[in-house]
Design a protein that fits this description.
About 45% of the residues are buried. Strands 2-1-4-3-5-6 form a six-stranded mixed beta sheet, with helices on both faces. About 45% of the residues lie in helices and about 10% in strands. The protein has a single domain (about 15-35, about 60-265), classed as 3-Layer(aba) Sandwich (Glutaredoxin). It is globular, with a radius of gyration of 18 Å. It has about 280 residues and is of the alpha+beta class.
């Protein structure tokens, strides 16, 4: 966080509501117009297959529009750092204004700057979360790393339901906007309750139930999910990301090749670079 006076709870809520309102208005206009570390060989193999399939789907998408985004995701991702007391905290940021570009996060010196691009409906992302999230968050809590999570939606076509991936990742945006301290809990719950590819996926009511199960019963979050407030931003951020598959993991500018290198070896190598 910063040393500036912390806004009151009411001020933070008003900021969050305004960011969501701008995004929701855009979505309504659109609707009217339409009227650590135990990796498995299987996970690595699946990652290679998924990367190839997804690249074929997203390689030739049109340039993304510049949509209004949620609070705390000005880089298109939400950043976590040590709270200095053995825990993890989010880093507060402004929202991306409509028509504006995201602002890249300035890497911290002397730590592992871990950046992940994940789709909450991606089975391999679920495997990655289950294998590594505890260890990654431990590194963050120790002050050895930061973690920046970018939700992207690249698997809509893998479900028979409407915009399943986009709506699922809208959940991440809604939580980042209104309840950012619960983002990691909600992300974990989304993976635990992940719909099977090829099915209709979860409707918005089911997504709300998952979020409530993760301890978020905020009316603004629920309204944001039901109203699909940040789905235009999800689409825009996905296009800007340029990722070829999920999970895409980058540490200090180097992308993990999950097909040939174990994640713990990748982390160890990046730590060795820091230690000279």
């Amino acid at each position: 966080m910063t040393n500036a006076p912390r806004p009151t709870k009411n001020q933070r809520r008003e900021e969050a509501r305004e960011a969501a309102r701008v995004a929701r208005e855009k979505q309504l206009k659109r609707q009217k117009t339409l009227k650590w570390l135990i990796p498995t060989i299987a996970s690595v193999a699946i990652l290679a297959i998924v990367a190839g399939v997804v690249w074929a789907v997203i390689a030739f998408q049109p340039p993304p529009k510049k949509e209004a985004g949620p609070l705390n995701m000005i880089s298109d991702g939400i950043l976590f750092e040590s709270d200095g007391d053995g825990g993890v905290q989010y880093v507060k940021t402004k929202a991306i204004a409509k028509g504006a570009d995201p602002v890249a996060t300035t890497p911290r010196e002397g730590v592992l700057n871990i950046v992940t691009y994940v789709d909450f409906t991606c089975p391999v992302c679920k495997s990655f979360e289950q294998a590594y999230s505890t260890s990654i968050q431990s590194l963050v809590a120790q002050g050895t790393a930061t973690l920046e999570v970018h939700p992207v939606a690249i698997l809509d076509r893998n479900f028979s339901g409407r915009a399943v991936s986009t709506r699922a990742n809208n959940v991440g945006a809604c939580v980042a906007n209104y309840a950012p301290d619960k983002f990691l809990d909600v992300m974990s719950a989304m993976y635990e309750n992940q719909a099977t590819e090829g099915t209709a996926g979860m409707n918005n009511a089911a997504l709300v139930d998952v979020v409530k199960g993760a301890g978020v019963d905020d009316e603004d979050v629920i309204s944001c999910i039901n109203g699909e407030s940040f789905t235009p931003w999800v689409t825009a951020a996905t296009g800007r990301s340029g990722v070829r598959g999920t999970p895409t993991v980058i540490i200090n500018g180097t992308q993990w090749d999950g097909t040939t290198v174990k994640f713990e070896d990748f982390v160890s190598a990046e730590l060795a670079k820091l230690q000279g």
